[in-house]
User: Fold this.
Amino acid sequence: MNELGAPIIDAERFDPGTLAHVFATEERDMKISEEAMSISKGAQVLVSPPKEARKIAREALQVRASLPPSRRGGLDKSKAASLGIYSGVKQAEDIAAGKPIEAMRVHRFFSRFKGTIEDAEFAGRSMANSKMLQAAALWGGFPMWQAAKAVLGKR
Assistant:
């Protein structure tokens, strides 16, 4: 597994046709701990961040803080507020603190950027040199997505 909790793909043995199978197998085989049980709140479904997602979010905040602004991934709170969208930094702070997160928001983020995240990983990038991997890690990486999908009943 890499720093986002996703399987590592061997570039020499990579077959693009098997990538979907690799992730489907990982998702099916991954066991979500009791920490990822949902909390119902009106129409929202909340998910408690698993331990691994909290660790990834903390690491992402540290990496982001160590970089100059031009190399930081994810939106800070003020920039996100000015755009009327949710901040990746705020999301990371909430995940790192173990606060319940809206499962559908997490699922939408990773569904929208999964291909870009996989491309960055395949290219050998890391959080230190990829804004996309930083942003994904701010959202708790693949363990957070797995937890969100588990409580939403998505495969």
